[in-house]
Automatic annotation (TrEMBL), chain A:
GO terms for molecular function: calcium ion binding. Pfam families: EF-hand_7 (PF13499). It comes from the Eukaryota. Transmembrane segments: none annotated. One of its GO terms (cellular component) is sperm principal piece. This is EF-hand calcium binding domain 2. InterPro entries: EF-hand-dom_pair (IPR011992), EF_hand_dom (IPR002048). Keywords: Repeat.
TrEMBL record, chain B:
Belongs to the PPP phosphatase family. The keyword Phosphoprotein does not apply. GO terms for molecular function: calcium ion binding; iron ion binding; manganese ion binding; protein serine/threonine phosphatase activity. It catalyses: O-phospho-L-threonyl-[protein] + H2O = L-threonyl-[protein] + phosphate; O-phospho-L-seryl-[protein] + H2O = L-seryl-[protein] + phosphate. This is Serine/threonine-protein phosphatase with EF-hands. Its EC number is 3.1.3.16. One of its GO terms (biological process) is detection of stimulus involved in sensory perception. Its cofactor is Mn(2+); Mg(2+). Keywords: Calcium, Hydrolase, Magnesium, Manganese, Metal-binding, Protein phosphatase, Repeat. Gene3D superfamilies: 3.60.21.10, EF-hand (1.10.238.10).
Length: 162, 653
């Protein structure tokens, strides 16, 4: 019993340090606050993948009563620790991602055209902004065929992250 | 049929909605992690940059130590200093410098006509775009004339704006000529209608410091009332020794470089401390402290501030005791610049010196209060309360400063009262940051303009740019790590009770932070720096894989090599200070005496005999003198080639 508690404490302590590190990188004024627009980046850099909707809710949880545009570390830490402990918002496995592309590729060609990708990403789900769309296209689209071979794309991205 | 087909449709659109959501979610996660990696790289660059500056400041304590115990002044230099009146000095400059150098007919570069006009500015810009080099004769003449005019200027220039005459404020340029070209392209050349303030740090780091300085000085000479130059912490000959400007000059001007350096030293000290716009905006390079006294700063004799590394000595010193010999009976020939003699009026008081340091080196921070700037080693960190206090005290509305690289080229803090403006884009690496400038006009809010110099590589997608930055940052971080190898191993082993060769990530991070003194996100960076086994433990010796310090000679002991590599920048500066005639050589005795001082002051535990042995080996032609540039160049780091190319190299198992 005591051992389990100790182990838990160590894990929590480690999470705290990890969260602090990630937070501090965006704490430009070194006063334990970050711009609320960076919260999504911080949470994702810690390996979690909340949707935009889930992110919105999380921000509401860590914001001040009267939103200041800044999030304080004291409020962020407990919320983020719980997310890590409960292993919430797990990242998307490679095969699930591949399946998602295959669903959109109804004709099973192995690729999506640039226009199709744009349509899906900007009209469905939680639509991309123009900037996000352009960013994705710049790396994903093969300029010669004007399409994305999604299997190759995924492989490339996975290597990139590791 | 109708029902089922519509329900199929709904199902299909639901699945495609879910699929789109998955892809979007995944992509946003990927993009965020990319952004975080970019920030980590920037943090690495910044930490190391400031740690280097701290090293520079620490060197000043060493110089004081040296001065107090071992300096001996060359009699001739002493007489020379005491004799010359200012006007005599000026005439001497002209005779000694400019007039003695002829411009050969074969010279194809730009030829300036004094007195200078805007034609000369255009001429220079065109020439530098073609990568031509301005002849030393013109360089010296420009510097000499600039110094003459600067001497007439007060410590703070007061300027007024109007709707038809806005002023443009630019921050650090650091020798990045393309950024200056871009600014002039977007914002127009300086003129009576288009005034500029350049807020320091024109030189060092970039490859075209002298070209930038020439353009700024020539523009200043043509429009002395509309082109304003503030001194930055890099307008300091000691900083130039460490950060590249000195090397650039000696490389581009092999024959006359030394003369250029000499006159540059004097010019720097005459640069104004700051600019005040419309009596309400203070423009200075670094920042303020809670004791900043603008009245004193208006009065101080700014030209006595030679370098951050030459602090004022106590004014109640007994001059006769300056003639000391060190314990080994060898006397040092320290350059006249760092000697202690002279009446107190030759120097600033300690208080005055600190006031100027604060202006050139301080950084704003979110925390209230005023704290020593431990990151850089000089100046302070000042909080919003200090800003309010000082601005109110002098009835000012805003502080515009530079000194810190910002990803967007500018940053506003302290409730809108402090603006940082930084004009060198891609400062650390391609894609690291934008540059920016501000346009001010009384009665309107400041307008910010951003830009980024794009070379072919910059059109790459974000992930490639982040890769480049990341590789660069990790590379310099690993060089830091290898330079502290012995200390790190000792720290690791202290934690490794079971002698397993492994530590938890936490223990490893603790050691790294403590020994290297860099506040970095070690856990997030660990996968780039060490091998981690399946259990998540760090194989700490892998911190040193694929990188080693090249030994200059086989016989040299590794610890010695490591120490010399670690301090090579400091040693370079010390050698340069000792080398009075810029010959590049110091005597064996000087080397030994200097090393004794250095090792005792920096607490370096290296056997004297080892150093002697090394020095003897380095004295290649056995004439009792060491070419210290060769000596220092011999210590460098070798990265294993593959490590640099593939971002995903892992040496697991």
């Amino acid at each position: 019993m005591a051992d389990e508690k100790d182990r838990q404490e160590i894990i929590v302590a480690e999470f705290h340090k990890k969260i602090k590190e990630a937070f501090e990188v965006f704490d430009h004024e070194s006063n334990n606050t970050v711009d609320v627009r960076e919260i999504g980046t911080i949470i994702r850099s810690l390996g979690c993948c909340p949707t935009e909707g889930e992110l919105h809710d999380l921000i509401a949880e860590v914001e001040e009563e009267e939103p200041t545009g800044y999030i304080r570390f004291e409020k962020f830490l407990p919320v983020m620790t719980e997310i890590l402990l409960e292993r919430k918002y797990r990242p998307i496995p490679e095969d699930v991602l591949l399946r998602a592309f295959e669903v959109l590729d109804s004709a099973k060609r192995g690729f999506l055209t640039k226009d199709e990708l744009i349509k899906y990403m900007t009209e469905e789900g939680e639509p991309f902004s123009q900037e996000e769309m352009e960013e994705m296209l710049s790396a994903a689209i093969d300029p010669e065929s004007n399409s994305i071979n999604y299997k190759d794309y995924i492989t490339m991205m996975v290597i990139d992250e590791n | 049929m109708g029902c089922s087909s519509s329900s199929t449709k709904t199902r299909r659109s639901e699945t495609s909605l879910r699929a789109a959501l998955i892809i979007q979610n995944w992509y946003r996660g990927y993009k965020a992690r990319l952004k975080a990696r970019q920030h980590y790289a920037l943090t690495i660059f910044q930490s190391i940059e400031y740690a280097d500056e701290q090293g520079q400041m620490q060197l000043s304590t060493f110089f004081s130590f040296m001065l107090e115990n071992y300096t001996h002044i060359h009699k001739e230099e002493l007489e020379l200093r005491n004799q010359s009146l200012e006007s005599q000095q000026d005439m001497r400059d002209r005779r000694d410098y400019v007039d003695l150098i002829d411009v050969p007919d074969s010279y194809n570069g730009p030829r300036l006509q004094f007195p200078l006009t805007c034609t000369d500015i255009d001429l220079l810009l065109e020439a530098f775009k073609e990568q031509q080099i301005l002849h030393a004769h013109y360089v010296l003449e420009v510097l000499f004339e600039t110094k003459k005019v600067l001497k007439q200027m007060p410590n703070f220039t007061h300027i007024q704006t109007s709707p038809s005459k806005e002023v443009t404020i630019c921050g650090d340029l650091h020798g990045k000529l393309d950024d200056l070209f871009l600014i002039f392209y977007k914002n127009g050349l300086p003129s009576e209608r288009n005034p500029y303030v350049f807020n320091g740090d024109f030189v060092d780091r970039g490859r075209n410091s002298i070209e930038i300085l020439m353009i700024l000085c020539v523009s200043f000479l043509v429009y002395p009332n509309d082109l304003h130059l503030n001194r930055g912490n890099h307008e300091d000959f000691m900083m130039n020794l460490r950060y590249g400007f000195t090397k650039e000059i000696l490389h581009k001007y092999k024959l006359h470089g030394k003369r250029i350096l000499q006159i540059l030293e004097e010019l720097y000290a005459w640069l104004p401390i700051g600019t005040i716009v419309d009596n309400e905006i203070l423009v200075i390079h670094g920042g303020i402290s809670e004791t900043t006294d603008l009245n004193l700063l208006h009065r101080v004799e700014r030209n006595k501030m030679k370098s951050v590394l030459i602090p004022p000595t106590e004014t109640n010193r007994d001059h006769d005791t300056d003639w000391k010999h060190n314990k080994v009976g060898v006397t040092f020939n320290a350059h006249g610049r760092i000697k202690t003699n002279g009446s107190p009026i030759e120097h600033l008081t300690k208080h005055e010196w600190e006031q100027i340091i604060d202006i050139l080196w301080s950084d704003p921070r979110g925390k209230n209060g005023c704290f020593p700037n431990t990151g850089r080693g000089g100046g302070c960190y000042f909080g919003p309360d200090v800003t309010s206090k000082i601005l109110n005290k002098y009835q000012l509305k805003m502080l515009i400063r530079s000194h810190e690289c910002k990803p967007e080229g500018y940053e506003i803090c302290h409730d809108g009262k402090v603006v940082t403006i930084f004009s060198a884009s891609n400062y650390y690496e391609e894609g690291s940051n934008r540059g920016a400038y501000i346009k001010l006009c009384s009665g309107t809010t400041p307008r910010f303009f951003q830009y980024q110099v794009t070379k072919a590589t910059c059109f790459q997608p974000l992930r490639q740019r982040v890769h480049t930055m990341e590789n660069s940052a990790i590379k310099i971080l690993r060089e830091r790590v290898i330079s502290r190898k012995s200390d790190l191993i000792r720290a690791f082993q202290l934690q490794d009770h079971r002698k397993s060769g492994k530590l938890s990530v936490s223990q490893w991070a603790f050691c790294m932070e403590n020994i290297l003194g860099l506040n970095l996100p070690w856990r997030s960076l660990s996968s780039n720096l060490v091998n981690i086994d399946q259990n998540g433990n760090v194989e700490y010796m892998s911190s040193f894989h694929n990188i080693h310090i090249e030994k200059p000679v086989q016989e040299a002991h590794s610890t010695l090599v490591e120490t010399l590599y670690r301090y090579r920048s400091d040693l370079e500066i010390i050698f340069n200070a000792i080398d009075t005639d810029h010959s590049g050589l110091i005597s064996m005795e000087e080397f030994r005496a200097m090393w004794k001082l250095f090792s005792s002051h920096y607490n370096v535990l290296i056997d004297d005999s080892q150093v002697n042995k090394l020095a003897n080996i380095m004295d290649l032609n056995k004439d009792g003198s060491i070419d210290f540039n060769e000596f220092l160049k011999a210590f460098y780091v070798v990265h294993r080639y593959e490590d640099l190319m593939k971002p995903d190299v892992t040496n697991l198992g």
